[in-house]
Protein: Aldo/keto reductase family protein
Amino acid sequence: MEARTLGRHGPQVSALGLGCMGMSDLYGEADRRESIATVHAALEAGITLLDTGDFYGMGHNEMLLAEALAGRPRDSYLLSVKFGAQRGPDGAWLGYDARPQAVKSALAYTLRRLRTDYVDIYRPARLDPAVPIEDTAGAISQLIDAGYVRHFGLSEVGVETIRRAHAVTPVVDLQIEYSLISRGIEDAILPACRELGIGLTAYGVLSRGLISGHWSKDRQPAARDFRQHSPRFQGANLEHNLALVDRLRALAQASGASVAQLAIAWVLARGQDIVPLVGARTRPRLEEALGALGVRLQNGDLAAIESAIPPGAAAGDRYAAAQMAMLDSEKR
Structure:
């Protein structure tokens, strides 16, 4: 497994990370045994970075990971945890809470659910507009000093927020959506991260399955699958976006890779400071994603891919309007 470093002074991690959200939430039902087997297969393949959130299934994902990781040396993997999203008993989204006391309370419960003494990277899931980012960063700095957290990360924030947080305590990585059809970070956010020595953990590299090569216009999202409300999966937008996938499919066939492997390989090729998170929920999907590590894209390959799917080619926003409005990273 190739290794990469998160940021200028962050930890060394595997070139691919495993995003665990779908094992508990937002993509319909998942098989518990297969989820655990997939985590085991990822670790055995050399993946060391596991990403979760305390609100994924309202704690379910953390407890699932604790079960999957039982008996394994704690220094053989890194846990990246998001916090702050508030949810009701019905799963409804209620906003964000990143006050210092909320940060510390959330971590206390996370440590208990994960059955660990510390998390490797702790990050607010979104910017809390009611709390200065300096206050949140300061609370995490205190947790680092106390040994409960190893590193501070951010998620879906813009350049100003990144700079303000980094001035309080070093940020090792920004977790943000980045894929062939979500390239908005390239204008300002990615250059700022590189200037400051902050790494990137890229989620949504397959745009929630849209550019995986496995989605079709006739496929219906499962019950409680948030893609039911995602603009890119709706009507004419979906037809337009699947036509882009067909372009990618032709290039993938020519290179001997699957569509998903080519899309992941493109993200891997964007820089050694970028670590894609793959949201595989099953061992076959994980195995396919791991195959991207063997796809070596030359300059001509990258040019052909970016010509087939240029920036801004996708139809529809990456989130519904209400969620887009909560993204500090989308503010101009």
